[in-house]
Amino acid sequence: MIYLGADHRGYNLKEGIKKFLNQEKIKFKDLGNLEYDENDDYPDFAAKVAEKVFSNPKKDKGVLICGTGIGTSIVANKFKAIRAGLCLSSYMAKRAVEEDDINILCLAADITDLITAEKIIKVWLKASFSNKERYSRRIKKIQKIENLVF
Fold it and tell me: Could you tell me the residue ranges of all domains in the chain?
């Protein structure tokens, strides 16, 4: 399952992505915002998506959209087992999965048009983690950091 979330700046791009996912017959669930609201806040939607992906991080994925993609990335990465990455190109999406095994894709609605977003999502969904020793080692280090208590 792919969970979608966007604030007001990402709302229109999310709506276009939903049409694309339907056309591609890719199963998704929209966790909001379900209507345009210029007073909404990206942490609310990023947390909803991250919670769902956290419940099954090996199977489920998420797509988060805000103006820059940075805010949603910050929020999602607060959750254990979540590796959210801002991708501005297909190249970044492919590398983010192959090397960092991201399970939440963050998009920047202010600079990413729908055609580019569709290309990024296609590549992101087709890519797979490489399992090369250096990348696996890095994921294990991230997991150790997640388990630290401050």
Answer: 2-146
